[in-house]
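Chain A, query sequence.
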Amino acid sequence: MIYSDFQGMKLSRLGFGCMRFASDPETGEIDQEKVNKMFDLAIQAGVNYFDTAYPYLNGKSELAMAEALKKYPRESYYIADKFPGHSLPGPVDNIALFNRSLEKCNTDYFDFYLLHNITEWSIKIYESSEYHIIDDMIKMKEEGKIRHFGFSFHGGTKLLEDVLTRYEGVFEFVQIQCNYLDWTLQDAKKKYDIITKHGLGVWVMEPCRGGKLAKLSEANHAKLAQYPEASDASYAFRFLQGFENIKVVLSGMNEVEQVEDNLRTFEKYNPLTDEEKNTLFDIAEGMKAGVPCTACRYCCAGCPMGLDIPYLLECYNDYKYAVSITPGMRIDGLDEDKKPAACIQCGQCAHACPQGIKVPEILDELARMYADAPKWAVTAKSRGEAIRKDLNME
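Chain A, predicted structure.
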């Protein structure tokens, strides 16, 4: 197992993500025997970082993780958990909710604790004086119940820079979605650079983009055939090995075979060659289906509605790759007169675009995609109801 140093701690570069445990599709019950076997394999090979969150698997992830870890000494592994501010039904007793996670994880403290899923929408909750989440979590850190404080992030680069500047000295690490596709699609490269510039550690989630990079198309897989026999997933993980400030790479493993494959990849330091990296970037470009916006912002100067067009085109490109909640959350954070439907189709942006992007047409399509896509509000409502029940707020 290869390790990284973080403030004197020896962290396994491969972290075990606890979001995708196998479960019964009808009852939702987790296959605990399989979880135990996967954890035993991982721990024996040197994995010492385990990442969960309050809402994962309808609240059962924390319990399953704790059950699998209970036979091991507490000081032999690190637990990361997350505060679900983006799912709250309204202001709640933050300390009681935090303590509930401690109880479920069978621990007195969290080695790493994160504000869950900061975006342009959720930051308004996290920074609200009515919710006072950050102040309460700082208090937990002062009491020793949080050893290291960070946040997971799904927003844009401007928000990331703003948050790290406003809270200089508060956070110690940031967890971002990073892989060879999102290196450019979601501007993960710039996010990595911003976090590194601020002196914080980078944690990675979605290294295989929800499994899409773990099993490539036949044509893309063939592009890797010239290299030594290895799984598609191993290339995604080796891509991340090449960045010094990436301290932990989380993999949501749900099969023993996945654990075994990942352990082989992280057995030794083996970053991609330049040739391999260029091949992956070529594959990534072929997977994209959006527009070639370079964020020059020429389009913004003459927009009568004052739309942040490059920001909206980022969301469009994300949607075009795969419909998901993430770009919708970013649009949710905008005022109504700044959302794509506010475009009046004047065409000034299209005339100004050096890339020839037909911006009004794209914004019209984006408005329809946003209207039809899954809404975070629906997910948040069900999670919020679960929080109310868990805290006896009903």
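Residues 241 and 265 are 10 Å apart (CA to CA). The mean pLDDT is 95.
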